[in-house]
Amino acid sequence: MSDPRHSDPQGAQRQAADPGASIFVTANAGSGKTTTLVDRVARLLLGGAQPEAILCVTYTKAAAAEMQRRLFDRLGKWAVMEDDDLRERLSELQGFGRDDFTPADLSAARALFARALETPGGLKIQTIH
Predict the structure, then answer these.
(1) Is the distance from CB of 86 to CB of 106 less than 8 angstroms?
(2) 52-87, pLDDT tens digit by residue?
(3) For residues 88 and 122, what is the distance between their CA atoms, to the nearest angstrom?
(4) What's the Rg (C-alpha) of the chain?
(5) DSSP symbol at 59
(6) Which residues contact 48 (CB under 8 A, 6 or more apart)?
């Protein structure tokens, strides 16, 4: 029997981004590790985690800056996105149906950008050094 994670790379990344799972990710450069980590942080925020309670640790300043840039870029786009487009993005991220997202869910997703920006000390995306 083949491993379903290899036949569905997006499903494997979605599983790795699930904040309810304990996952160890190791992969080559350019394979999507940063995207998966940004997805995981976005899902933590969508699940109600306080931005100041999240700590991301990377090996380099460049990786930390890139992760923060991508996260703020995503949250900023969500803040101004049309309902249908936002439903699609949230559906892809979380693996739910588009119709599973209520107007309150969309409003909460849109508010994440402001919450992240207003977090005292900012989101903690730092290096191990």
Answers:
(1) yes
(2) 888 888 888 988 899 999 999 999 999 999 999 999
(3) 28
(4) 15
(5) S
(6) none
